[in-house]
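Our consortium's second objective concerns turning raw sequence data into structural hypotheses that experimental partners can test. To show how far this objective has progressed, the report includes one record in full. It was chosen at random from the queue rather than selected for favorable results. The single chain below, 177 residues long, was entered without modification.
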Amino acid sequence: MNQQPTRKRFRFSFVTLGISVAALIISFVFVTVLGRWREREQTPRLAVDSLVKALRKYHKQAGRFPADFRELEAHVWKHKKAPDFGADGRSLSVANYFYLYHQVDARSATIWIIPTGPRREEGSTHFLLLRPDSLRRWKGVPLSLDKIKGLPAVPQYRQMALLGMTEQEPVELSGRR
């Protein structure tokens, strides 16, 4: 009679150990997956292609680039709930990047793209000069958020060099849509 209670206790200990090991493995997997998801969400991701495509579509429709993102929203994007474009309608934050738009004239526009967020050092600052048939691009180190206020709409080469920006290969857009 003494052996039966010991066996039940022994079996119950194995069941408890199995459940504990399974819970430990599930918890480890969950924490790892959640950590990678948070890391991916905090890493800056560019949305340049869709922005350039929308701006070119607006230019094709109106014969000029929009004055600000609000015009682009009204004619091309048409979100159910429009994003916050800032007080002047020229700024937008998407996927840990801050976009600052300037219409230079009817045939050209510029866009500053600055990484933000806790992992902003992993991103690059970009500057685009967009025309209906071409796109000139510059790339550089992440700029501090203090420098955003002083960025010129159309910088000179000397200013680009001081900001650590280097020109990339231009992109011909004439055949692209």
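The partners drew two points from this record. The chain is about 40% helix and 25% strand. Residues 48-172 form one domain. Both points have been shared with the crystallography group to help prioritize constructs.
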